[in-house]
Amino acid sequence: MAKPNSLIERIGVLLLVAGLFVFLSFAHAQQEERGKTSYMKVDHTESFASIMARMKAEKPEVEKEHSAVMNERYDLSDRPARGVTMDRGKPLQEGVRVKLTAGMTWEKLAAMSAEQIREQNLYPKGFYPLPHPKHTDGGFVFPHFLIDAIKQQDGRDLTRFDIDFDLPDHFLAEFPPAIYLAPRPELGDVSQGKLVSLTNFYEMFNGLLTPRQLEGLRLLLTPFPQQQFNATEDRRSAIPSLGAACFDCHSNGHQNGATHLAPDTRPQQFRHRIKTLSLRGMDIQRLFGSQRALKTVEDFTEFEQRTAYFDGDIVIATKKGVNPLERGSQVDFMADFQEMLDFPPAPKLDVLGKLIPSKATPAEMRGQEIFFGKGQCASCHQPPFYTDNLMHNLQTERFFKPVMINNMMAIGDGPIKTFALRGVKDNPPYMHDERLLTLEDTVEFFNIILSTKLAPQEKQDLVAFLRAL
To answer: Is 66 exposed, middle or buried (0-12, 13-18, 19+ CB in 10 A)?
Structure first.
């Protein structure tokens, strides 16, 4: 290349070099955001003993950082509502637990536009997407009561040596949950107060289910290898594990708060935490998975075990020991049982899903009017089961700028399935990632997102109605 021999030419070369530098820097940033690879590391040369020792040593700092996030976002105290319980008697937590910035009130915040909230950085921390307890790794994390029960009944240990579950017990659904069978409502709760597992399902359901349904239930209770629970050196269980079962997360066909990361996003920091969804009311639902819009319960069942168990990586699944299920004689049987699971009874509702005036309180009746009117809730949550079986994008990114929160990049949520609100008081915490701990939090969230500007009494009445569903 000839040397430039004029000032203009020299300036031109400098501008060219500067432009090239900016381009390469931008390209590097874009590559970082896009991710270096779609695949997880398969070949580990570090021994299991070394991996476990290292992660155990890191655990206190990992949990300290995540606890700081939780305590900044929420009031985590145990404050049960008076006279309000879940189906089998567990007290329901009450009150708004999301914290506001100093000097802010919910009324002031609701009066602001999305642009004002975003520019002044006033979006409540508890409304941001919630990180996984260890977002760099993700994977199944179970509450201690489920771990203890499975260890006692089936002899399997679902403890992770690198992390513990992050939400206090009092914010979670009651355990073990009740089981209602849609074809046999006269039986009431058939759980007998027990957690259904491989060691007791036959004696509990033999004579109540068909052979197909009984086999489907057995498969739902059978552990198969999973990303964190398997026999490889990069597992997260102290001893080689048989794996995890569908009903390890979906206890008694409901949920226990167990969490994971959605498998369908890369790179890791953009993956969303996901709540274990209840399987109640599967027979009336037409979309499955909180954000993946799977079209049948068979798709959901097969996808979870083949792919979601392994963070959406088909290569790592082969290494860890994926167990493909046969569609016609296994997946179909599992779906048969799932489609029997019903919502808890709602004695105050008529056949169309509306309140029976003679059985409802004045607050519940006012709340119903708000639900179908000013609150705009029924735009998506339509009776009798309070879902429209569609996906909706709330465009939460209107209210905040992208920010890294404990190794998770907080951005908009994208399309979210309309969850059925029947039995909603028995299904905490709320939203697809468990970010809303109480029904009061949920009402405040949608009051901001939908700009409904509900008065304090209207919010209380709306909560009263939701508790009656």
So the answer is: buried
Phi, psi of 375 (to 5 degrees): -70, -20
pTM for the model stands at: 0.92
| 98's tokens | 């999301």
Please name which of 208, 172, 214 lies closest in space to residue 192, comparing C-alpha atoms: 208
Buried b (16+ CB within 10 A) or exposed e, 138-148: bbbbbbebbbe
Over the stretch 125-149, which tens digit does the pLDDT of each residue have? 999 999 999 999 999 999 999 999 9
The C-alpha atoms of residue 296 and residue 305 are separated, in whole angstroms, by 15
Longest dimension (CA), the chain: 95
Cα dihedral sign, 105-111-117-119 = negative
Concatenated DSSP letters of 304-331: HHHTGGGTT-HHHHHHHT--PPPIIIII
Classify residue 293 as left (phi > 0), alpha (psi -120 to 50) or beta.
left
Closest to 467 measured CA to CA, from 425, 421, 419? 425
Instruction: Report CA 344 to chain centroid distance, whole Å.
Output: 21
Residue 273 per-residue DSSP state: E
- Kindly report, residue by residue over 341-375, the tens digit of the pLDDT: 999 999 999 999 999 999 999 999 999 999 999 99
Alpha-carbon gap, residue 333 to 331, rounded angstroms: 5
Q: Do residues 274 and 291 lie in contact, with contact meaning Cβ atoms separated by under 8 Å?
A: yes
Buried b (16+ CB within 10 A) or exposed e, 271-288: bbbbbbbbbbbbebbebb
Report residue 215: phi and psi, to 5°: -65, -40
Closest CA to 276 of 263, 259, 292: 259
Residue 424 near residue 387, CB atoms below 8 Å:
no
The Cα 443–Cα 438 span in angstroms is: 9
For residue 227, count CB atoms less than 10 angstroms from its CB and return exposed for 0-12, middle for 13-18, buried for 19 or more. Answer: buried
